[in-house]
Batch of 2 targets.
Target 1
Amino acid sequence: MSVNLEAAVMENINELKVAISEKTLEVADLEKELKRYESVLALLRDDHNRNARRKGRPRGKTDLAEVLGGLPETFTSKEFIKAATRTKKPSVYLRLALSRWAKEGRVKRLERGKYQKVRNGSSHRLAA
């Protein structure tokens, strides 16, 4: 009976070795997949960080101030919106910027849709 028991133990040992070998291959495959996902995540983060840290001058505030600087002393909201099309901001946002500037005293509202530039100090403070 000891021979059968010894054979059974040897068979179990061999089965365990085969299972360990299979699991080792499975772990290696999972590690490869994990590294692939980590590299994709790193690329996404780099791309996000690259977009977050734009080089050159900041967009938005300066662009609208430049647009305003390029307009005549008195202008209409339509002229402002037309001149600001390169900023790719919606016309609703541009009209709200004009309204906010008027409340802040940066431009003067002459009548509905008509504005005048205000010259008290520096014009670089114009912001959207």
Note: The mean pLDDT is 83.
Target 2
Amino acid sequence: MAAYLAERMNLHMWPIKARVRLAMSAQEALRGRAAHYGTIEAVDEHTCVLLCAGADMVATACYLAMLDVDMEVEEPAELREAMAHLGGRLSRAAKEDRALGN
């Protein structure tokens, strides 16, 4: 019952649902931060899938970026777009010689 309620509270109460392949084994994911982000499903010995949810695309993209692991967003496509936008913004922020807004 507790596991059922935890899953319902975590995945089903948020409007954005995501499926993300992580470049780590399910065992590694379950020992780390990813286990607190949602449900982990083993794919093979080197990768797993994280099923997670969030309030909006930008927040979900930021949340996933904090995992600090290579990943591939399988769905939704809008999350891939949000992550690409966030990646561009972070890359621009890292440049030393740029004017704000350019």
Note: The longest strand covers residues 16-22.
